[in-house]
């Protein structure tokens, strides 16, 4: 009875896996909802897409389970399942180190269920070796699964600007360097149009400023004016707190910084990257600045007007007689007085 359940489960799961792999190999991109899917869809071995290898593996499992127990299918089926499980575990580790892939997780899930069903169909597989492979596979399956969920449901939230803007600006309301950076970007309409602002909240006062902004734009106030008010320090005291959804979406911006290994703001990210400053303070003969952000290179892609606008705000021209000094900004988990002290130093 148990062998029959295991066998027919393997037949159904392998058939589903073969169809899924073949359709993706033909370019249907089923469940391709993460960045990793788009990257791995171009991966190949000997010029053959990985999806075709998946199709071959699932088809082999399907045929061997169908003819079981004839033609040494029992031993061959065990070899194919164990080999596929080991290879998939290695690929899960690769996804953990690089990009998680939703469609790859569908393949992994089907393969993991097949490996479990094989314990019913082939009881002699029950060994420490097999259990060890299953546990290692399960460990990385859970980790990569959380990474996929985080990418799908905890994407950074642009409070101002288009999410697909080429320039991403991470700032917080009470950070003096952020305030100056936002002011400089807002002063150039060309750069502003191509920038999206992701606001971080470090404490209750900043959460109140963000809540006030959301309240204003939802009541029909001009979003640009409301956004600039975040950094003006004029938040009323009776602002209703953000709802849970908004809190999570704002927290996703901090999570995005954490995934990039950053722990301070401001941070600017653009398609063509070279280290540049985030807040400009021209000082003659200052050399070897420490980079705090990334902005388009003057020699990189994009329009010359956009690059010139970037240079006009953050410098970078080779014809400048002086160089630019970087301001440190504010740590995400630092004491507020550290930013206040920095602001006093700037004013002096």
Automatic annotation (TrEMBL):
The keyword Protein transport does not apply. The keyword Aminoacyl-tRNA synthetase does not apply. It comes from the Bacteria. Residues 285-329 are annotated as: Disordered. InterPro entries: Thioredoxin-like_sf. Residues 304-326 have a biased composition (Polar residues). Keywords: Membrane, Transmembrane, Transmembrane helix. The chain crosses the membrane at residues 6-31, 43-68, 74-94, 101-122, 128-149. This is Putative membrane protein. It comes from Desulfurispira natronophila.
């Amino acid at each position: 009875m148990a062998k029959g359940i295991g066998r027919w489960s393997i037949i159904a799961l392998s058939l589903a896996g073969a169809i899924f792999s073949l359709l993706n190999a033909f370019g249907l991109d089923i469940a391709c909802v993460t960045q990793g899917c788009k990257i791995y869809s171009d991966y190949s071995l000997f010029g053959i897409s990985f999806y075709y290898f998946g199709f071959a593996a699932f088809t082999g499992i399907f045929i061997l389970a169908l003819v079981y127990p004839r033609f040494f299918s029992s031993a061959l089926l065990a070899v194919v399942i164990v080999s596929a499980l080991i290879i998939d575990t290695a690929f899960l580790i690769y996804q953990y180190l690089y990009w998680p892939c939703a469609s790859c997780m569908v393949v992994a899930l089907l393969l993991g269920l097949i490996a479990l069903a094989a314990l019913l169909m082939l009881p002699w597989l029950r060994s420490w070796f097999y259990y060890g492979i299953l546990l290692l596979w399960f460990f990385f399956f859970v980790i990569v699964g959380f990474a996929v969920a985080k990418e799908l449901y905890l994407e950074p939230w642009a409070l101002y600007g288009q999410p697909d803007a080429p320039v991403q600006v991470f700032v917080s309301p009470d950070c003096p360097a952020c305030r100056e950076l936002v002011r400089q970007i807002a002063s150039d309409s060309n750069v502003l149009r191509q920038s999206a602002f992701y606001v971080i909240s470090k404490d209750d006062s900043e959460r109140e400023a963000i809540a006030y902004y959301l309240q204003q734009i939802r009541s029909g106030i001009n979003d640009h004016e409301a956004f600039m008010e975040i950094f003006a320090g004029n938040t009323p005291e009776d602002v209703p707190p953000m709802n849970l959804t908004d809190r999570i979406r704002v927290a996703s911006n901090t999570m995005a910084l954490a995934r990039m290994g950053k722990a301070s703001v401001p941070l600017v990210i653009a398609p063509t990257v070279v280290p540049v400053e985030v807040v400009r303070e021209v000082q003659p003969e200052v050399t070897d600045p420490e980079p705090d952000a990334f902005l388009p290179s003057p020699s990189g892609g994009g329009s010359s007007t956009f690059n010139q606008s970037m240079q006009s705000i953050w410098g970078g021209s080779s014809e400048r007689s002086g160089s630019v000094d970087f301001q440190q900004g504010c740590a995400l988990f630092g004491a507020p007085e550290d930013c206040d002290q920095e602001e006093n130093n700037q004013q002096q």
